[in-house]
Amino acid sequence: MSANPFFVDLDQIFVLLRNWLVGFLPAGLRPAAAALLGVIAIVCVFPGLFALTTVFERKGLGRIQNRLGPNRVGPYGLFQPIADGIKSLTKEDIVPLSANAAVHFLAPLALVVTVFMGFAVLPMGRNMVLVDMDSGLLFFFAMGAATELSVFMAGWSSRNKYSLLGAMRAVAQMISYEVVLLLSSVAVVMITGSLSLTKIVAAQDQYTGIFPHWYIFTPWGLAGFLMYAIAATAETNRSPFDLPEGESELVAGYHTEYSGFKFALFFLGEYLAMFSISGLGTTLFLGGWSAPLSFLQFIPSWISFLSGCAEHCPACAKTS
Amino acid sequence: MLGDGILKGMAETARNFFGSYVSKERLTTVEYPEQRIPTAENARVFPFLVYDGTDWEAGMRCVACQICEKECPPKCIYIEKSADKKPDFVGKPQFYPARFDIDISVCMSCQICVEVCPFEAIKMDTQFELATDDRFGGLLEDRQKLAKSNEYYHSIHPTEAAEVDARLAEEKAKVEAKAKAAAEASAAKAAAASSPTPPAAPPAKTEGGS
Amino acid sequence: MSVVETKAERVTGWNRPPVIEPDGEGELLEVAMGPHHPSTHGVFRMDVALDGERVIRLKPVFGYLHRNHEKIAEGASYLASMPYTDRLDYFCSLTNNWAYALAVEKLAGQPVPERAEYIRVILAELTRIQNHASSIGFLIQEMGASGTPLMYAFKEREKILDLFESLTGSRMMCNYMRFGGCRVDVSAPWLDATRKVVAGLPAFVDEFEALLSSNEILMARCQGVGILRPELAVNAGVSGPMLRASGVNYDIRKVDHYGIYDRFQFRIPLGDHGDIYDRYMVRVLEMRESIRILEQALRDLPAGPIMDAKAKIRGFRPKPGEAYGRIEAPKGELGFYLISDGGPNPYRYRVRPPSLINLTVLEDMCLGHNVADVVLIFGSVDIVLGEVDR
What we know:
Chain A has helices spanning about 5-10, 15-20, 30-65, 80-90, 100-120, 135-155, 160-190, 195-205, 220-235, 260-285, 300-315, and strands at about 205-210, 210. Chain A is mainly α.
């Protein structure tokens, strides 16, 4: 632990900010307000990251294909997601006449809500967990399973054969890869002896010489990490596991019949699921918020967490 | 090794990604409409009628022979011949089109009208930004809209226009030479004949166009 | 949600009994992979009956792009049909022009000067290269590749289309061949530009192959899928790269000796299995052979007229008779059958489209495969709806 107070404050800046804001309220309301502020932070930060990710993905893909990506809206096209958001909000919301309207409406909501709840147990920095559960890992995987439910709801309620095919494929794929996902994290649980994510990170926050005790540096952790990366790509229906979406044969798979904001919610949910699974992978194998080398401990913990996520994300990124 | 095909492919895309920052060959976007690719000289979009000089009605080369109307595959040309005649570039009186409409929403830019025109009167333009929101008449061009000057023709198709001008000048020279020869012949005949009746010079036989 | 019940007896229009029996009970899922679809290469419908994900039946339905091409040709003169032939296989307008010009020249007994023949070969091989590159690009896009090989193929295609534009005036609807030769002569700057483009093509094909040919995902999805047996291919009249991928050595350039192809040295790639991967490889290798032909043709181009002196543009009335002219178009055997009654318009004008004939074996190739494979098999047939529907 670095003794430099500036870096300690920088590390805890969000905690200090929250405590200061909450200090304005009477003592009875403080825990609820603290939780609410944490929720607001998550709801603002991760969709913002989603917006940036879409722009960078499109620009990167464009450069690979010898063309510029979006570059008209804002400098280097960085405001493109705002334009996309406005577009999807103002589009006509088409619901097929024979679709099951209630389920059709609830499916994107179910997806987004369960994915956001998965973020609640991720430790994003030192003392920066929204809910410190004893069985946080189990809760996270439970939320992941609920994601699959929403995909199936979407496909079934659309009353469209393409959607049905896409939903069947999605359910089959996600259930199968759930098993791999869970088994790859069992090794971590066995070493730590706990399902709590904060304890898993704390167990990795020790250093031998300059090297951290990250589980990826152990042979079982490395094997687990590789399996986890592949299973995570399959869970979030990214290439090359994107047959449920199946752009070429199934038009858009389970979200064929969605337009406007609901489609945007599906998109948002898919990318947020990608971030949260990357966050979990970072927590389990890449030491969560602990620094990569012992002399780098002055780096704020939330930066280490985000950079771990960013390293893990390309594993889920669309391959060309 | 399993996966080396994918790795080779990724190396290829990485080469394109990084190459797009350094070489023009790997970033081929032309940001229209701020940047444009210059059109090829031979490009053809829609036809236009050529006129010589400054007066588009008097200088129009078209003599309303209606060959292009007959040969046009989608039949997008509509011509009405005039009742009177006006002199063409060698001076011979010719009909002219009282109406010459081309519906460019039907025209398929095949250039057959240009190929079959014996008078070098209709040529292909290169303007393509002709979108209009008038659905029913906006793309029907009448002869005034179609008439463009020979200088304009030189500016868009310089080689072709130069060839056409050379050919027309040659024809005109041939016609004038023939007229001069005929005039000299008739003048000689008039001088040779000593009759009081005024010699009537036979009208010079001109061929306007092949 | 109910699923349409499909029993063998009650399906109308599907006359054959099912070759693949569905396993288990339940009904078949009938999906119309309909005219509105991202991967059907145009407006084309396939009615598939699925057992889970496996295809039990497949019926292609086309005609959505029918434009009365043959009937229009009966009312128009021979020259006026030439721009319409551009629009048949709109990717390869110059080979369409050549096939039609060949048929009319056979009908009228019209010879073609040598320089025009060389120019025709150059343009046809350029067309073949850009068609094969685009078709592979589209095939890979349908596998889910976000269009990167397609963009690389289109980059090369743009260079070739720029050549076409500077020669014929138009990038795609070239309307360049005439009965008895070509419309305008090639200039020295154009030949230099062509030589530069052709010099860059081997590197492009190498890059293309480096990206794709040993890709494990491509091999896993394409090898062993959509196998077309050579006997079935020959019996069904399939032609072009599909036929050669099944191992049948039949290329009209070598069989008919039309034009001056005898003067060029090039090989015909053949496949062993007849699956999608073989068709892909045959197209890549054909691109390389086309580059060889181009180099030879550009080297040997003679001077001379490009149009036969006795050829007529207007008032062309061939003597009564019939002729069938066919060429090796990039997609297969493109043939024009003309009957003349001595007038300015043909009495009967028939196009033999390779895409349509190649599509007739689609069901046989797709039976037993998954829906995802159907799209790939369809893409490997390489059709253009303009040709199928005319």
